[in-house]
Amino acid sequence: MNTLAIVGGSSPFTVELFHQLALTELREQPYELRLHGRNLDALELVRYFAVATLPAWRILATPHLDEALDDADIVVHQARYGGLGGRFQDELLAASLNTLADETLGPGGLQAALRIAEGVLAFSSIALRQCPDAWILNLVNPLGISTSLIAGAGLQLCLGLCELPTVTHRLIADLLGVTVSELAWDYVGLNHRGFLYNLRVGDENVLPRLLTALCDERAENGVCGIGSELIAQLDAVPLKYFKMLNGQPIHVPGRAHALKKVRDRAYQELRQRPVVYPTSIRARSMPWYEHAVVPTIAALLGHAPSITCTANIGGSNDIAQERMVRMDRGKLTIKSPSQPPPLVAAWMDRFCRHEESVLTATRCRTRAAVIAALKLDPLLRCDQVRIAADLIDV
């Protein structure tokens, strides 16, 4: 029997994963699902919904991580270390510096990395003992750092999954008026800092066609807010976060309070109607389940044709880089990208040096390492570095 374990399975947002699984042939498979969470009442609510949604599955719930991971084949790692309270503190830090409130990038991302490291390493230690050969589908932000920590601990079958490159690919195909399968592309990146390039349909370089399409008034927002001038300059389509990393001012409010309200309403709805999808959850878009997690599970278990997507992959001591991969029945093939355009290569060098410094800070946890990471952060000015260092708890 194939076993899927979900770490962080007491979150009501997990019902979206069950909903997406139930839309595939996986719904009828006699697999085992193990839910792990610390809140027993919440865990039981989520388990009850899973039983109704995946009737052929054997579904267990446990607060004991070693029991949940025992001989698991696939592990979805989505625990929120420090809870939404931790995320709120990260957003407060970012707001005090008038920079992006994000749990992956900027000083908030660095503080989040420092907070999650101990929990991620504790999870990795238990997983190494209980299911060393399992596929770890990692969703914990900051995704690149958590993937690096897990892989560095010895779990080499760890994939950090993010839907953003795939969603961007789909948007480009739509703008060009071609199918997703027709549009080929290369990719280079770190989580939330990536570039799609060498766009082609057959033997045709379709970047000029994309630039023409972006001149249409219906495409006034570009590709995820990235306009034609920047795309032409880079000779590539960056992910949406690049407009912030490139110095474009943007004000995105923190989401911790809003997510808490949605979460609490969802629990209330599950208590009232345990087998009905909570309508409040639709207030939070969760495309990673549909476009990344479920297709990967289906491909690994042999219930989908082979898929090509991106995944964050780390090594023993290296930072996790987002690579294009092909998955087919448990076999993973990493695709070698073509040479990226010169400006893309220069940006990636800058991003990699920053990511390496953040990973170093999570491992040695000194003020000097934190300052070094902040100095390399594209989101901070020089005069903000010391202020940020004083605010971050090492």
Give your account of this protein's structure.
This is 6-phospho-beta-glucosidase. Pfam families: Glyco_hydro_4. It comes from Candidatus Burkholderia pumila. The chain has a domain at 3-162 and 256-306: NAD(P)-binding Rossmann-like Domain (Rossmann fold), CATH 3.40.50. It is built from 15 helices and 13 strands. It has helices at 14-22, 40-53, 65-69, 83-96, 106-130, 143-152, 164-176, 207-213, 228-234, 242-245, 256-272, 287-300, 342-364, 367-375, 385-391; strands at 3-7, 32-36, 58-62, 74-77, 135-138, 158-160, 183-190, 193-201, 204-205, 237-238, 307-313, 321-328, 331-334. The protein has a 6-stranded parallel sheet, sandwiched between helices. Strands 7, 8, 9 and 10 form a 4-stranded antiparallel sheet that branches. Helix 1 crosses helix 12, helix 4 packs antiparallel against helix 5 and helix 13 (342-364) runs antiparallel to helix 14. The longest helix is centred in the N-terminal third of the chain and has 25 residues, at 106-130. The relative contact order is 0.14. The model has no long low-confidence stretch (mean pLDDT 93).
- Helix content class: 40-55%
> Order of strands across the widest beta sheet?
3-2-1-4-5-6
In total, the number of strands is 13
Distance between the termini: 44 Å
